[in-house]
Each structure stands twice: as C-alpha cells, then as structure tokens.
Design brief:
Elements lengths: L10 E4 L17 E4 L13 E3 L2 E3 L6 E5 L6 E6 L3 H20 L2 H17 L1 H12 L3 H21 L7 E2 L7 E8 L2 E5 L7 H13 L2 E5 L5 H13 L7 E4 L5 H10 L3 E7 L2 H12 L4 E5 L4 E5 L5 H13 L9 E7 H16 L19 H16 L3 E4 L15 E4 L6 H4 L6 E7 L2 H9 L3 E2 L1 E5 L3 H10 L4 E4 L14 E2 L2 E2 L12 E8 L8
This protein binds succinic acid (SIN).
Succinic acid binds next to loops.
C-alpha cells in the first residue's frame, strides 16, 4: 500500500464490471475513473490528535494507517494512543471543566453556533474527507455534513434554555426548586458510519449543558473528527473543553481508560450491542451515567393497503442508506401477501438503477462497505439465505472488479424466520423480503428480536397506523416514511438497542444531573 499524505488529485481506473448472477437487472458496466478532489483548505487534514487545545502525537510515537475503503490506499496516519494518552486527555477535560461550566448558557450557545457556522463554511471539504475515509458517495457525505452541523445549531438553541422546575412542597414553610447542572467530564465513543454526525450529536448537547469531553474518534474514520477539532479551535472553544483521542488497534484499551476513570462521569456510546454490554460492565465500578445507542434489526412492514410507490421509495431509502450501514436501516422487510409480488418487482427494479462505485465518481449512488469483515458478513447472510431457499432477485455477489470492499446491492425473496438475516443485523446492502398474512402475525414477527431501535410500516389505514405504531417494540417508528433521522426527533432504542435519547429537546438531559434545593422555614407572610 502506498501512503498518500496530501490531498493532491489522483486517479484510480477500475476494470469494467460484469455482474455474474443477475446481469439482466444491472447496468452493464461500471467504468471507473476514481479521482480524489483536493481540499480547498488543506489545513483541515490533520495527522495528529487534539488534546488540551494542542495537536499531539501518541507518547509512544506509534501511529496507525487510515485507508480509503474504495481503493484500499493509505490516506494518512493518526496517533495510536493508549490508556496513558487517554488519561492525559481526561485530565485536560477535568481542568477545563470548572471555568466552562460557569459560562452562561448564552455564552456556550454562541460557541456552538460559531462551530456550526464553520462547519457550514467548510462543508465541501468535510464531505470530501467523509467520502475519502468512509467511502459513501459525495452527495451522501454532503448530506451528512448538513445533518451533523444541524446538531450544533439545534443544541446552540437549547443551551440557554436548560430549565429547572419549582415544585410545591408537602411541608408548609418549605420551598423546593431544581437546578440542572452539567454531569461533568464525558467520554464519547462513536462509530465510523457517520464520521461527523455521530460526534456532533454527542458533543452538541454535552457542551450545551456545560460539560467537557474526551471523544474517541472512530478508528476507521478519524480524519473527519480531526477536521471538526480544528474547527472547534477556530470557533474559540476553550482549550481542554473538547479533546479527541485516536486509536485503531488500541481502541479497547482507550475505551477501558474512559470507562474506568473516576474523573469521567458519563459515557455515551454508539456502536454494537456486544461492545455496549462490555462498556456498561466496565463503567459499573464508578457508576457512571450512561447512554447507549446500540445495534438494530429494523422491521419494515408493507401492508396490502399501502401506497406501493411510497412504500418502495421508503424501503429503498431505509434499506440502502449508506449501503445499508446504519443502525436504523431496514433489515427485515415484511410484505403482506396481496402486495408481495408487485412490491418485489418494483423494489428490485429500483435497485437495478443503482450505480455502485467510488464515492467521488459522477453518478455513484452507492459506495463500498467499510472493510472486508463487513463484506464477509453480508456474503454469509446471502449464502445462508440462498441455501435455505431464498431467491436472488438482483445482486447477490461481491464486485471484485470495483474493489475488495464492494458488494452488489441485493434483493432476496422468499425469506424465512430461520435465516441468519432474520436473526441479526446485516449492516450491508442486502434486502430480504418476507411475506405475512395478518397484522397480528407481522407485529409478532417484528417484535421477535432482542433489539428494538427503529421500525417502519406503510399503510393508509389511520386506525392501523396508531395500533401498529404502539405495538412495535422499538424506540423510533417511521409511518409511511423510511427516513426518520432529524436533529429535532428523539433518537434511541429499547431492549438491547440501548437507552437514552439523542438529539431533540431530550438530548441535553443525558448530560445534566438534577439538583434539588429545599429551602426551609420560609413560612407565610406575617401580617
Ligand atoms: C446510526 O446508524 O447509528 C445513526 C443513524 C442516523 O443517525 O440516522
């Protein structure tokens, strides 16, 4: 692999792609001219971590490589930090806390607003970095930058409005009121699938509340995080308030340094359920406040009475967003028997129009998966389903001519409950279509999983819309829409998808503690 340390334009030409299993449904060729555009502001590309307002390396001097999932080329290196480096970042956050928490909500609001403005001004460059290290098409990356920046805008508006309450006391002469105080130093651990938005969704409310943070950058996508750190610096966020720790191989060690630190009072994590369980166990010794957004296995239900085009568009948006690599992507698509054939045909036809390729290539609608482990999981779900009787309508195979991380957007029909895809989140571009007969049956099937993040259904029957929305065991329901992510909407799950809500008017609650003040002996006015 060749290290590429500048963002000078380069090109990688790929061989044409001839699909193997379903040629009739795919475009015939994927001729690739893969050009990485240069950043307008090259100083946004950092190869160091941001701690206590300074750019630093790991004390050991070790680094890890960041690779482009499309081309497998090494883009840059980042410090491979360890537990000792992490503790320095935690100390910096602790030192910054007393002054930062004393600022008024309005002062913190202005800082977040400035950071938001800088993200908007540098949106093109941030999007280029996201595409480069994550692989998603540049149009999606631009969408992510907007989504991410909007969390800063939203929480800049919440910061001055963190209200306590006054409570009528049971004891005559007493007066009770509450104050919302920052919980303290927060450890934030985020994934690679939204290199910007998952970070801003946590830092926004933390800073609004008056907390200081140590954010562990995603190992696969640390460059976007580093660019955000640079913008924090330019926005005048005081030193030590926002710190980024980078690691790839040392991620478990860094995670444990955060969860075991008595200084860190809160951990917010987005990632897999298994890692969430581990972090929760590690955090128990110091009884931290926690919020976890973990894995999903979203049911997506199409009733006979749904509008077909709306349901197909919703399924495409929900299933194939980021090539299926989001926690809220549809995973099990249940279609009622009366509409099944029409839905399957229309859905596969839409998938046929996708253009898979490098994220910068004109017209690319879907990029690569993040790494080979992701491709192997997707492939095993397809192989297992086909072995157990599913039919491939389109796709079904790797796309080696495009690169090792590419997998064809796939639609499978005749899925059954024993298949791997029915049991666990695929996190990739494979849509499995199940059929069902009754509302009661499909709700039972939809809820037959340990996780409950998002669920979707399509119907024109208003009573059914209420009934099913209430019956689904998930934290978020999309009714007649496949896209539910919005900074204004509470985001989070139930069951083993975690707890806590991000974004929205509830987001700040995860970063504050309520202090109750009871004043005695006030008594009535003596006349
Ligand atoms: C996630 O995949 O965890 C987040 C998706 C979103 O915010 O829409």
């Amino acid at each position: 692999m060749r290290p590429v340390l500048s963002l000078a334009a380069r090109s990688v030409t790929r061989a044409n792609f001839q699909p193997r299993l379903a040629p009739r449904l795919f475009s015939r060729t994927y001729a690739m001219g893969h050009t990485v555009p240069p950043l307008s502001d090259k100083s946004l590309l950092k190869t160091l971590s941001y701690v206590n307002g300074e750019w630093v390396g790991a004390a050991s001097g070790k680094t890890f490589e960041v690779t482009d999932p499309s081309s497998h080329e090494v883009i840059a290196t980042q410090p491979e930090m360890d537990a000792a480096d992490t503790r320095k970042a935690i100390d910096a956050a602790a030192a910054a806390l007393p002054a930062f928490r004393k600022l008024t909500g309005r002062e913190r609001s202005r800082m977040l607003r400035k950071w938001y403005d800088l993200m908007a001004e540098n949106a093109e460059d941030l999007a280029k970095l996201i595409t480069w290290e994550n692989g998603k098409p540049i149009a999606d990356a631009k969408g992510e930058v907007t989504y991410a920046a909007n969390f800063f805008e939203w929480f800049s508006e919440e910061a001055p409005r963190i209200y306590g309450t006054t409570i009528p006391a049971s004891v005559a002469g007493n007066r009770i009121f509450t104050i919302k105080e920052p919980v303290g130093v927060c450890g934030l651990i985020t994934p690679w699938n939204f290199p910007a938005a998952m970070i801003t969704r946590k830092i926004g409310p933390a800073l609004a509340a008056g907390c200081t943070v140590v954010a562990k950058s995603p190992g696969e996508t640390p460059l976007t995080a580093a660019a955000l750190a640079e913008l924090a610096h330019r926005a005048g966020i005081p030193k030590g308030v926002v710190n980024f720790v980078t690691a790839l191989k040392n991620t478990p060690e860094v995670g444990e340094a955060i969860t075991s630190s008595p200084i860190v009072k809160k951990v917010s994590f987005t990632g897999s359920t298994n890692v969430g369980k581990l972090l929760m166990k590690q955090s128990s010794a110091t009884l931290k406040k926690l919020s976890f957004e973990l894995g999903g296995n979203a049911p997506f239900i199409v009733f006979d009475d749904a509008d077909l085009d709306t349901a197909v568009a919703g399924a495409i948006a929900s299933k194939f967003r980021s090539s299926g690599q989001t926690c809220v992507c549809a995973n099990r698509i249940y279609v009622q028997r009366g509409i099944y054939e029409a839905f399957a045909a229309a859905f596969a036809k839409k998938v046929e129009s996708f253009k898979v390729g490098g994220g910068y290539e004109a017209g690319t609608t879907h990029g690569p998966l993040i790494h080979d482990r992701a491709v192997s999981k997707v492939e095993s779900h397809v192989t297992d389903a086909v072995k157990q009787g599913a039919t491939v309508l389109i796709g079904g195979q790797r796309l080696p001519d495009l690169g090792a991380n590419f997998f064809a957007p796939t639609v499978l029909r005749d899925m059954t409950v024993d298949m791997q895809l029915a049991q666990e989140e695929t996190f990739g571009p494979v849509a499995g279509l199940f059929s069902f007969d009754t509302e009661a049956d499909v709700v039972r099937l939809a809820n037959s999983t340990e996780v409950g993040l998002a669920g979707y259904f399509f119907s024109k029957d208003v009573q059914r819309c209420y009934r099913v929305a209430e019956a689904l065991e998930v934290g978020m329901v999309g009714v007649n829409t496949g896209l539910i992510s919005d900074p204004a909407a509470p985001f989070g799950g139930v069951k083993e998808s975690g707890f806590g809500r991000e974004g929205s008017h509830l987001g700040v609650d995860e970063y504050v503690v309520t202090k109750t003040v009871t004043m005695g002996g006030v008594g009535p006015l003596q006349t």
